[in-house]
Amino acid sequence: MTRGERRQLMWGLFFIAPSLIGFTVFMVIPIVLSFYYSLCEYPILGSPAFVGLANYAELFLRDERFWTSIRVTIVYTVIAVPMGIVAAFLLSLLLNMKVKGLAFYRTIFFLPSIVPIVASSVLWIWVFNVDYGILNSLIRGFFNNPLMIAIGLGPIKTVPGWLASEQWALPALMFMSLWGVGGTMVLYLAGLQDVPVHLYEAAEIDGASAFRKVWHVTVPMMSPVIFFTFVMGLIGTFQYFTQAYIMTSGGPSNSTLFYALYLYQNAFENYKLGYASAMAWILFVIILAVTLFVFRTTGRYIYYEGK
Amino acid sequence: MNTRPTSWTASLKGFFVTEDESFRVIPAVIVVAAILIGTFVFTGYFAESDPGQRTVVTLWHPWGGEAGIDFRKLVDRYNNEIQDEVYIKSLYVPNNLSANQKFFLSVKIESPPDVIFVDGPQVAEWAERGVLQELDAYLEAAGIGEDDYWGPCWRQNHYKGHTYALTYCADPNFAFAWNKAVFREVGLDPERPPRTIDELDRMSRFITKTDPQTNAFVRIGDIPWAVYGGANTLFTWGWAWGGSFYNEETRTITAHHPRVVQALSWLVNRAREFDVYSGERLVTKGVERVSGLQQSFGSGEQNPFYMGRIAMMPIHITVLRDIDKYAPDLDFGLTFLPAPDDGEFQSSWIGGWCVAVPRHALKPADGFDFIRWMCATPEGSQLAASSTGSFPGYKVSPAYEEAERDPRKRVFLEILRETRHQRPVMPAQAYFMGELDESVDDAMRLKLEPEAALRRASERTQKELDKIFHSAPLVAVEADRS
Known about the structure:
Radius of gyration of chain B: 28 Å
Largest sheet of chain B: 5 strands, mixed
Oligomer: heterodimer
């Protein structure tokens, strides 16, 4: 290294120092400490007292709510992530057609995803209102009309209880997640622009139907984008928190007690920081394992054109 | 990398630019310095008015909105008229049963406020965790004792032989309100509220009306399982049934006391009257049907009780203000809660805020003097009462004379005089209330039998409680005592 290079390096380090220091102080140290705390009994006040694996043992062996929260989170992830991908993909196909007012439609579908989560959650509380919510009004209107009554499907006396019902609360949140697919949709739209037109032309010459073209051309060419959104979706839903915190607080009867919500309750409502740290590390391991598993099993189906 | 200076920097070359052209340190330093100086100047500009030579005592309170404006008046009176050595600096820093991190951390880093508001049921928990100071010496010096306060108001602040707080407001929970107009409309005697649970049940069934077409409620008699959350519901009816929740002597949780189980069973059965069946199959649980109705309840003018959609409900004293504001013409009566024939009549319990001095507070004596003035002088307690719309915990206050003249407040005052209970004075109180919420939820939704649900709450809370009692005292406490 010449003197000039050393100088350059020194200045370089100097200028990235704020970010390096910030990263160390606010990320690396807390992460390392949280692992230590996960082995401690740590009620916010007072010092952490080392208890070995007691927190983990308590979680795995005795804490029913821990398992409830895992079940709720997995059920949500397994259903909501694929559902969101399919919805976003179909939407992006529709919005990729050359129709009049395309920009308008794209804006409309993208708009919900820029509404702050807190605001949209409060809004959806009203949508899900059992007696006066727009959703149940639509359901009632659909079933209680002469046609449905004539064919014997109506009228109905009961409508879904949504957030008030332990059977419907989780499906309600899944349903609501569809409202926010705009972000994923935009990624897909960008991806669609990259699918070479000559592949479609070739398929057409071979007599492929519209569905065949999508399945054999669009999907493979889009697979890296889909894969990316799938993995990010998985990681995101494992950390699902805000909507449940605002709309249901985990209820009714723990039916929407998401993992991150239970973690938060332990840390900041019950002051069990050690216990919550242990939960955080378990979540980290789960996400890591699931992501690795997805990479191992799904990776080979992904087609990278550049390779 | 080639970073050419742009034209304006080029013209300054030789002055700002160092020998190595890539880095322009001096302009950067000037910009940063300008931002810092600007920040200091502006924060100075917006700072609160100067308290002069007085000692500044900080106070964290939970009163936002209009209550905050009223509270401000009380603080101003103390600052401007009561004394001239101390300046109370009040900050709106709310805390509640589930959000005390900010306060706890302030004690942990030994930089707490000098005075803190604490919700009544939290006092023991906070004392046990070592974030509050014992006030015994101050109280003795000021000549304040048990007899100056309503029984439950004193007891809720007395833990392990020490007093940790004074009651700021005493809310007699609850008065039973009934809508006389609805009673008249359905043909019940509007001056005759239910006195027993049997009467309540019968009247409620009589009043409840559903739309035969949609099956939605047009009006409901009462929703006894929705008294300010699951835990408070259980406290309210559990005591009315003659039950108990905690044995202070043996430090045992008794949420599964047979009378509490009976109270919860009553709630479950009441909700089950609204179950919807299709043939043999239960399609919608009563509690869910009603919670659909509850979701559409509004506040202000839209309050279901003001609109006559609920005919009877236990109400909190502060609701009176709300009624004056939003439904001044509401024709309603107030009385004691009904109770079962073999239960506890005129049953009620105390809620409300208390005030304490945090451990490590820098000016505990000055802080206590303000507490004493707010909570244990006629003038302060009267202002406190008018700022909260409730009663002081202090027995000798002009606030009661005012209440005597108001026919509605007088009912609450009668209830306050009869109040026997306060929520269990123990740590893990917030945890306990969370467990009670869950057991009410699970029982109402028919997931667990009332007995099993309550037993679970007892067992889980007992475990938390034992852990707290058996663990070593927290460091903060040790440090202070050594």
